[in-house]
Amino acid sequence: PHMGAALDAAAREPHPPSPVFVAVTSEPQTAEGAADAVERAVRADVEAFGLREPLRRRPSPGWALSDVTPALHAVLDGAAVGGRWDVSSLVALDGLVDEKLRAGLLSLLHGPSWPPEKGADPDYWCDGSFSDTLSGEPASSGVGLRPARLAALCAEGRDTPPPVAELEARVGAYLRAVDAASGGGGVDVCRMPEAAFGPEVTPLAANAPVSSDGEAYGWHIDADPALLPPSPWTDCFGRYPNRSPGKPRFVTALVYLSPEWRWPEWGAQTRCLDPPTGEVLAVPPAPGRLLLMDQDISHAVTAPAAAAGDTPRYSLVLKLCLHSHRGSVAPPLAMPGWGPASAFGSARRLRGGEEGGEEGRG
């Protein structure tokens, strides 16, 4: 009975059906011993499947957190979830990706002699291969990186391209600093593991929409931990609403890489949807700007305006999982010293006399 109770506790989720995690033991168990046995089994699976591998690189000298400034900080999609007021967050950051890093990241998306303003380099990109969906299926149109180029971009360990390693190091340093400034107990910033969705959904992606794409891009989410397929991830962490206290938070880091972008003439904003109200929040692109947002935010690529001609709006996407060392809160995305986020759409609803609730600050 003790082992059964421990297994029930490990698999308990707010939204059934729950996956079943099985631990086998031949020894009689106390309640404490059963809980320990299940916890050991969970930790073994987390390690075996690489479900929590922190980004440990440190940023290179010459860049400092003090360079980072917020261009936009907003919350949207407010709802009562499990007895708490929940909102999705996004923060646009300037200065995290400087000109040198922006150029280095863009160089991974075209050949050394290819002028990026000419259009997507056909040696790197091909029609119909862009994928930014939960299923990993290609979008209906739009160019994406060729499989070999995408695999090289996603390489890990010593094979990680240096600009990608530097980007991950800076994003990790920023999020750990946010956690510390917010009084958190620490956070592990990790790539989205293959074991969550399978090899079809990669931890990095790239996009290069052009004006001729027109209305090709629809609303989508990058991921939602409540919608994951059965996998080692759901065995260990279950299915749950994003930002649930004590659970990994799914976050996307999107970097705009074009060397020049004339806003608003060239358009190509990232649109974020507040489903309860239908209101749309537009994030203007800018060279090197980085957008951090919850992966369950409904959003859409916007093709550049006709004024941009054939110039693509290049971007790189990094998909992350944030594991808090303190189980009572979800890791925040913005420095507390920047003040409360702007409440957008349904996040403006008042609850308990406060706009947006506690999560509205993250």
Q: What does the model show?
A:
- Helices cover 20% and strands 22% of the residues.
- It is α+β, with helices and mostly antiparallel strands and 362 residues long.
- The protein has seven helices and 15 strands.
- Strands 1, 2, 5, 6, 7, 10, 12 and 13 form an eight-stranded mixed sheet that branches. A three-stranded antiparallel sheet has the order 9-8-11, with no helix packed on it.
- Helix 1 (2-11) crosses helix 2 (31-48) and helix 3 (99-107) packs across helix 5.
- Mean pLDDT is 86; it is low at 12-19, 135-140 and 351-361.
What can be said about this structure in brief?
With 362 residues, the protein is of the alpha+beta class. The protein has seven helices and 15 strands.
Could you tell me the number of beta strands?
Answer: 15
For the sheet with most strands, the description reads:
8 strands, mixed
Q: What portion of the residues fall into strands of 2 or more residues? A: 15-25%
Structural class: alpha+beta
Order of helices and strands: HHEEHEEHHEHEHEEEEEEEEE
Coarse morphology: globular
Helix coverage percent: 10-25%
Overall average residue pLDDT: 86
The parts where pLDDT drops under 50 for at least 5 residues are 12-19, 135-140, 351-361
- Please tally the helical runs, counting DSSP H or I stretches of 4 or more residues: 7
- Our measurement of the CA-to-CA distance between the termini, rounded to an integer number of angstroms, reads 41 Å
- Radius of gyration (CA) equals 21 Å
